[in-house]
Write a structure and sequence with these properties.
FAR_NAD-bd, about 50% helix, NAD(P)-bd_dom_sf, 7-stranded parallel sheet, 19 helices, Fatty acyl-CoA reductase, about 525 residues, transmembrane, NADP
Length: about 525
């Protein structure tokens, strides 16, 4: 069952005349949580670049390892992600205000003067802070992904200029459904009861009851994300809430430049493992859809959703937006199986231990056997060699981490969903031609061959932080691995053939007949040449 959401008046925001997205954000102050996360930092960059007249941008961060939020913000703004802003608008930092806060603290850990300033000035809130670990303990997942949004919403209730609270959810919040519409669905567990239980329930008891609480959900991430949507809609009916649900967020398509990715979450970690030769098999159905949406398209949906709701106030539609590929442009795990190794051979990583290769299988026994002999055993032998050369052993540990990551993704690589995105398409239709380019939300026209090539280059350049200057050495290593792979296959074929010929008389007889025929033909060649 779906849940009704807050409906605002039919009158158009502002003056009533059409505004571009950049004009809409002009002069408005924005508050962003999760600014150091993948989506958060790309959102910050795009907001400042495409809406240069935006007011102050308040970036909530927490001190880390003794480093104050000001220092952490400077480090973030010094990254390659902000190159074009540093080049074309050197004073862009003046628009950003770091705010010290913590999602786990009461009242977000905000100082009273910070709360007063935010509630006085802020018009738009983007809440993207979350724990994205699939195997997170339920208590931490609830505190971050359910109680966190509650605290943000409570802060928003006191904002006098508030036009929108954008909650970043996930397209997989309702993953027990094959077809997911842009509506909020009621969960099996009431969020408030779970919040109350978390307060008094012992961690051990909570861990025991977690599988029963999850029900059909595969993990605590999707479970708490669905609860947060329902909770916000019902607990805060008067807030101008917008929910944006990205699918699997991958490297950028174009903005701020192709291939930007700086973490190993989701497919990025798997791509890096394939590029290094550390992972060659994956448990999944190669025919299923891989709904990987570029991060810049996801952030465009975030920015456009607020403009769409405020400018057009679409009736008969819940303010939920799916930042997904859409039904028209199909990418499968088979495409990834084929294109990823090919791209890493063309753009190799440094110090690859084997040729890049990726195979998806639904056969559990074959997967387990392959993992044991083709991953764990080579990792163990490599660690022995590391020990013998007085170096730190890492390969078994990395192999175990990759295997754990694969297990958490199995649910998603064995299934596919249909995410309807009519609201996103309607927002695109409402845009001016220039906004359709600058805030492109349509992933249906992506060229997957080109995107995956950009993605693999981005993994090498930005996630693995490898220089392009050493590409010659890396390619020489790939050629060496190709020769070694060919030699190994020949030796394996010869060995198998010899073992088989010795044990099967019929094959031995056939082998001798073939050798005699070859010898006879070789002897006749000189006479045929003379005639």
């Amino acid at each position: 069952s779906s849940v009704g959401m807050h409906s605002q008046s039919d009158t158009q925001a502002g003056s009533g005349s059409f505004q571009s997205i950049g004009e809409f954000y002009a002069g408005k102050d924005v508050f962003i949580t999760g600014i150091t996360g993948f989506i958060g930092k790309v959102l910050l960059e795009k907001l400042l670049w495409a809406c240069p007249q935006v007011g102050r941008v308040y970036a909530m961060m927490r001190p880390k390892r003794g480093r104050p939020v000001e220092e952490r913000l400077e480090e973030l703004l010094d990254s390659a992600l902000f190159d074009r802003l540093r080049r074309d608008r050197p004073d862009f930092r003046d628009q950003i205000r770091p705010v010290q806060g913590d999602m786990f603290e009461p009242g977000l850990g905000l100082a009273p003067e910070a709360i007063e300033e935010l509630q006085e000035r802020v018009s738009i809130v983007f809440h993207s802070a979350a724990t994205v670990r699939f195997d997170e303990h339920l208590k931490i997942a609830v505190q971050m992904n359910l109680d966190g949004p509650r605290k943000v919403a409570e802060l928003c209730e006191g904002m006098r200029k508030l036009e929108a609270l954008v909650h970043v959810s996930t397209a997989y919040a309702n993953c027990e459904r094959k077809v997911v519409d842009e509506i909020v669905y009621a969960p099996d567990v009431h969020p408030q009861k779970l919040l109350d239980a978390i307060e008094w329930m012992d961690d051990g008891v909570l861990e025991q009851v977690t599988p029963k609480l999850l029900g059909q959900k595969p993990n605590t991430y999707t479970f708490t994300k669905q609860l947060a949507e329902f909770y916000l809609v019902n607990k805060f009916p008067n807030l101008p809430l917008i929910i944006v649900r990205p699918s699997i967020v991958g490297a950028s398509w174009e903005d701020p430049f192709p291939g930007w990715v700086d973490n190993f979450n989701g497919p990025t970690g798997l791509f890096a493992a394939v590029g290094k030769g550390m992972m060659r098999i994956m448990h999944g159905d190669r025919s299923c859809r891989a709904d990987i949406v570029p991060v810049d398209i996801a952030t465009n949906v975030l920015l456009a959703s607020v403009w769409h709701q405020r400018q057009f106030k679409p009736q008969g539609r819940q303010p939920v937006y799916h930042a997904v590929i859409g039904p028209a442009n199909r990418l499968t795990w088979a495409d990834i199986e084929t294109l990823t190794p090919k791209n890493f051979v063309a753009h190799p990583t440094q110090s690859a231990i084997r040729l890049p290769k990726a195979v998806f299988t639904t056969n559990t026994l074959w997967y387990q056997a392959n993992w044991l002999f083709n991953h764990q055993l080579p990792a163990f032998l490599l660690d022995l060699w590391m020990y013998a050369s007085w170096r730190k052993a890492v390969f078994v540990r990395v192999s175990n981490r990759i295997n754990k990551s694969i297990r958490t993704l199995e649910y998603f690589t064995h299934r596919e969903w249909m995410f309807n995105n009519a609201n996103v398409m309607h927002a695109m239709e409402c845009m001016s031609p220039s906004d359709r380019v600058e805030f492109d939300c349509d992933a249906s026209k992506l060229d997957w061959h080109e995107y995956l090539e950009r993605y693999c280059i981005g993994v090498k350049r930005y996630a693995l932080k490898e220089s392009d200057e050493d590409v010659g050495t890396a390619r020489a290593r790939i050629r060496k691995l190709q020769r070694l792979g060919l030699l190994w296959n020949v030796l394996l074929c010869v060995l198998l053939w010899r073992l088989t010929v010795k044990r099967v008389p019929l094959l031995r007889t056939m082998w001798l007949v073939m050798l005699n025929l070859a010898g006879s033909l070789f002897n006749k060649l000189p006479r045929l040449a003379r005639s």
